[in-house]
Structures
1.
Amino acid sequence: MRQSLMLFISIITISLGFSQENPSSFTLQEAIDYALENSRQAKNATRDIDAAVKQKWETIATGLPQINGQISYVNNLERQFPGIDFNNDGIEDIGAKQNMTPSVTLNQLIFDGSYIVGLQSAKVFLEISENAKIKTDLEVRKSVINAYGNVLLAEESIKVLERNISVLEKNLDEITKIYENGLEEEESVEQLQITLSGVKSNLNNTTRLKDLAYQMLNITLGLDINNNTLLSDSLETLAISNLDLNILDASSDVQNTIDYKIASNDKVSKELLVKLEQSRILPTISGFLTGSYVGNNDKFRFFSSNQAWAGTAAMGFNIDIPIFGSGLKSARTQRAKINLEKSEDDLTETEQRLKLQIASAKSDFEFSIEDYENKQENLALAERIETKNQTKFFEGIGSSFELRQAQTQLYAAQQELLQAMLDVINSKAELETVLNTPIN
């Protein structure tokens, strides 16, 4: 009995453990932090940095000493003449049946202009990867904010639509009873039925969009598409927290933006390509040191302690001097210079484009705040108008058409306010991304 009880408790504990893994609940900042660690884009950007570090060391290693060993074994299956021992030392100098030559060679690059440029390029490539990581993190952050906001918009829209349906169903029930008593026209009932049908249709569509919004958020976070994710923040709270105009005073120096730094990296890489082509006219100098032993035997006895070995060692230098290449190196250098000129123009264009982009993002953010305040006032007016028309309608001094117009206006104002909240959040995120503000 005791064992059965312990088994039951264990099963319950395991079940609770699995249930606690899902759902995952996130505030917006928690969602951003999670995505920066777990989204596929962020992880791949981190891998690119790791690969750049390895490539940098790979470039450095090509100029460091390289030691290689080799073992050569020859078995003369058929000899034209017997082996000859010139020195009477027991070693067949020529024509031995079997031959083994182990050797070790050390190669060292002494001077190579392309190696020096390669070291500079490896450093720039690492910087490019690091800037690309920053760019990716900024884009991931913006994507999370957009996806998070779309889910909240759908959730809030559903709540508003459900409240509207509840009010409409109550009104329809009341007007139907009045109509059945002969005190109201059938058109009044039909007008409310049309309004109710439209709101229910919007609710069904918004519910489907909510499911898609959650799936998009899960993908952005790096979660399974069907993960049961919960959101802790509300749309209104986030909108209010983003009503901060201080960001408009942030520096608009485009040279601080990540897009400018990436374009600048491209220009530097093109400069290095020019240097690389120019360095090809310089000589390449390398040195080597090699040592080997030669062993000959009529039978395979090379691992015997009686095996005689003849040692040899040598050192030397190699100098590779370019003399004439039929204009190949000149053409390569000119082509690299043309690409450099293009990158310089691209950098200038990027600078001008970023100035416009920053100005546009600031303007959009200011407008979103003004629009949000305007939509708040419009909703308050629409609510008062709808309340007045509903009172007039049930008192018999207003038409069903006027009531329907007031209701439609109210429902539009509700959705416009929710959209204005989302626009404040998204436009702030866009401005932060363009200005390359800290993502913490």
Note: Confidence is low (pLDDT under 50) at residues 1-22.
2.
Amino acid sequence: MTADTQIPRATAQRLPIYYYYLSSLHEAGIKRINSTEISEAIKFDAATVRRDFSYFGALGKRGFGYDVSALLDFFSKVLSQDKLNKVAVVGTGNLGQALMKYNFVHSSNIQIVMGFDVDPKKKELKIDNEKDETIPVYSIGDLKSELNKENVTIAILTVPGKSAQEVTDQLVDAGIKGILNFSPIRITVPNSVRVQNVDLTTGMQTLIYFVDNFENIKSAK
């Protein structure tokens, strides 16, 4: 992959799925796999798998398939698995605290290191999590200084919609480069900042629609 290679967003979103599937194969001692087998396991069609991999050059060989260990090592580098990514949670209500307690327990390169909240009662609140760690929660007024102190560039936003944009502006000013947005609104950021929206309500409504209209959707394929 060259520096000017354009990777489609949909492909980028599938990369972690490939990585974790390859990790399970490696742990099981499987040394080689082809695109059809990958397709059957992760439910993407084989053509999509081959196209996704093609953006990164010749990762496999015709008639041989893919070397699991080599492919896993490649995607590990692509996804920066060798670098610890420090994360802050902004908004430590029920959802924020649940995320902090979970703290990406199954990932070795993601760590929530602090939280922020506007409620003064939550200032310096210590949250113990599944990794047997204690995560401090600071006042929102200390946002910039604490983020800079720990060199945090990724934030999870779990604040109410009415304050989401204002807090987002503070995060951008503090040097945040990526935001996982759980707030109910679409936030506006500069082109230099990336946002991944997680809308639980929309996701559930979509699921309910598919459940209630299963036969109609199936027949329309």
Note: The first helix runs from residue 9 to 27.
3.
Amino acid sequence: MAKFNVMDLFAGVGGLSFGFSKINEFNIVAANEIETDISKAYELNHPGVKMLNCDIGDLTEEKLQETLAGKHVDVLVGGPPCQSYSTLGKRQMDARANLFMQYKRVLQILKPKVFVFENVSGLLSMDKGRLFPKIRAEFEEIGYSLKHKLLNAVDYGVPQQRERVILVGMLGENNFEYPEPTHGEGPGLKPYVTLREAIGDLPVLKSGCSDDRYGGPANNEFLKFVRASGGKHLEEHDAPNNGEHLIRIMQALKDGQSKDDLPEDIRPKSGYGNTYAKLWWDKPSTTITRNFACPSSSRCIHPRDSRAMSIREGARLQSFPDDYKFYGSDGMKRLEIGNAVPPLLSVAIAKQMVKALEKK
């Protein structure tokens, strides 16, 4: 059976590509990413994929034909940068907010059987709720029948609450069925993956310290997944170095507490209710961003060690395997992680896509 060819737009480090790369029926033939360091990170993890490191506006029909060398793209995946849509940002209708039109333009050139367009939940309420119907109308205009659903990565074994709008378009009848949750609190579901289960095997660290040794065995399903490569040494497990006052703040917090629970003499005068806040050891993480190593940002303080999170821990909370590579400065690596589609969510989507395509 011939494989289905996949192209990934706005590819980032390849979180969405991950799921498709793990299923034999798919062959990722090309990817596009504008940021050079991020494109290099993608190439480290997907060396067989042709990377187009350029603005999506530079993907002309000629350039795409040259890159694909006669291959037809069956599945187009990707989502424009989410900063314009995020409820944490300024939510401006700027050039980035209209990048879906570039996605549409590439769709018109490639004419894939199906596409997956993903983005943050804030996309649904952007521009007073007017933007998402406009996006749907643009894609329907070129012949795609659409389905969309808000999926939460935590329901698919990711140790993090992370909602994403998944819009699927198909030429002809849309027979895609969204993956059913595998984790949760209902009958027949596995329990949510907690921080303790996701990062409890990593060694205890103090602020400013590092360790490349595992602190315990892979004793649960999630750890067996992220440690499947069998490596003996950790990479990127370095705790950011914070000042004495911030360390005192972090040590004063109990599990799940925030700045409002601090003694008045050390309580920060600025910040929102979930800043300077500890995560819960026995719950999944809240949504992480590129600022997951910054305690004055949204909730991200390590509940056991009372410190800022390491790059490896951020990657774990997104469900990246321990042998997944990131590239550039530490700030760039955190951006790569914070903006990614969680690999375990992409696996769930890709499995359902195989079923839909095989029915056709």
Note: The CA atoms of residues 30 and 109 lie 14 Å apart.
